[in-house]
Amino acid sequence: MRNLRKEFVKGLWNEHPIFRLLIGMCPTLAITTAATNGLAMGLSTAFVLICSSTIISLVKNIIPPKVRIPCYIIIIATFVTIADLLLAAYLPDLHTVLGLFIPLIVVNCIILGRAEAYASKMPVLDSFVDALGMGIGITWGLTFLGGFRELMGMGTIFSQQILPAGTTSWGIFLLPPGAFFTLGITVGVMNQINHILEHRRTERTSVEPTMAGQTAES
């Protein structure tokens, strides 16, 4: 299946848009004050990414190269408008909280970057799978950041009390410095996990030839 599984899982960890590629930082830092906000922003971004990448891959051969970027932006803006109107109609309170950051998905580096670097060059199925993986990666990343900041700042996750009543909350996590602090810690932990995994892979690779040689000699 043309390594579709690899295309899907890369956006979940190894090429995570937020924690590995470090793009789309404005909404990441601004709206992740609660798990609900992160989830809503992540799902909105994933919807736009999946739909726009699929359409761009479908029409890439009929778009003149000189106007490809304006055409991509029009396609992206169409789905951003749909997401914005749906939130305004069905989740007005959440739409008010997210505010300007929903329309700003149009110029999000994640969306336009995948359109230019991947969807405009790859088949439709590959583009869809790539966007799906990236979209899920964005969603879990924003939800995690929002949930952690909400937990540390208010003792709740998705407005459900988690920490015991009376536990001291750290309000700084709900402020801009808390966003940078949480993002930095998360990126550091992911880098350390990747370092450990790479070290184990290297050890396993070096052991396998030795064992093969011992088996041949016996």
Account of the 3D structure:
The mean pLDDT is 90. The protein is built from eight helices and two strands, in the order αααααααββα. β1 and β2 (160-161) form a beta hairpin. The chain is mainly α and 218 residues long. It has one domain. The protein is flat and about 60 Å long. The longest helix is centred in the last third of the chain and has 42 residues, at 176-217. A two-stranded antiparallel sheet has the order 1-2.
Unreliable stretches, pLDDT < 50, 5 or more residues?
A: none
Largest sheet: 2 strands, antiparallel
The rounded distance between the terminal residues' Cα atoms is: 40 Å
- Helical proportion? 55-70%
Mean pLDDT: 90
General form? flat
Structural class: mainly alpha
Lateral strand order in the biggest sheet: 1-2
Total strands: 2
Instruction: Give the percentage of residues in beta strands.
Output: under 5%
Which radius of gyration do the C-alpha atoms yield?
A: 21 Å
> What is the N-to-C order of secondary-structure elements (H for helix, E for strand)?
HHHHHHHEEH
